[in-house]
Amino acid sequence: MKDKKTEIIEASIELFAKKGFHTTSVQEIVNKANVAKGSFYTYFQSKNELIFSIYTYYSSLTQNKMDQVKERFDDPREAFKKQLEIFFELLKSNKSLIVMLMQGQISIDKDIESLIQQSKQRNFKWAKENLAAIYGEDFQPYLNDAAILLNGIVHGYASWLVGDNADFETDRLAAFTVRRLDDVCFGMQQQNEEPMIQELPDYLQEKALIAQEIEWKLSNEVESNETTEKAIEAIHVLHEEFKKEHPQPVVIQSMLQLVEEVESTRTEVNRLRRLIG
Length: 277
Description:
Elements: H1 4-19, H2 26-33, H3 37-43, H4 47-70, H5 76-93, H6 95-102, H7 112-135, H8 143-163, H9 170-190, H10 206-219, H11 226-243, H12 249-259, H13 266-276
Helix pairs in contact: 1-2, 1-4, 1-6, 4-5, 5-8, 5-9, 7-8, 7-10, 8-9, 10-11, 10-13, 11-12
C-alpha cells in the first residue's frame, strides 16, 4: 500500500502534466489523491516544495526500474541497452511534466544545489559501473572520460526527445547509442589515447559516491523513523568529513555505526570501510 506522501506526489504529477503547475490547486491535488488537505501540509509547506519531491520521486522511479531490468540480464551490454530503453521510454511517457520542469515554469528553492550534485553523482556512478562491466579491466584508465562522454550522449538525446517533439523508437535509439559508445570506447583504446580526466573532484571520488548511494537508500526507506533520521544526519556528517584534508577516523567510524543501524545500508557501509581502511 502506498503512503500518503506518495499518493500526493503521484496525483500532482498527473495533474501538473495535464493542467500545468500554476493552474492546479492544492485542493485538486488532495482530491485526486483522496487524502485530507491537512495531509498535504504535513509533508509539504507549499507546491514549490512538492516539486522538489517530484524530482526525487521521478529519479528514484527511473533508477529502480533500470536496476530491476539490469538484474534480468547476464550480458552487461544487453543489460545496459535495456536500461537505456527504460530511461528513454520514461522520458517519452512523462514528457509533459518534464517539459514543465525544464522550461522554468516553477522555481525550486529547496536545496537545489544539493539536488543537482546528487544527480551528477548518480549519473556518473551509473555510467562508470556499466562501462566497467561492458569493457572490462583493460578499459579502467578510460572510465572517467567515457562516463562523461556517455552522459553527454544520453543527455543530448534526452533533450531531443523531450524538447523537440522527436519520436524515436526507444529500442532502436538504445541500440544506436550502444553502438556509438563502442565507437568511442574502442577508438580510445585502439588509438592509445591519453585520458583527459586525470583527477576527479571530491564529490565524484569513490567514497563520496558510496556515501551518496547510502543517502539515496535512506531517503527512499518505506518507513522513516528515528533510526533512519539519525542515519541521514550521520551521512551528512560523513559528507563534510570526507571534504577535509585530514578526516577524523573516530568521527567516520562513529557515523558508520549509526548508518548501519538501517539494515539496507550495510553492504555499502562495508564497502566504505574497506575503501577507507
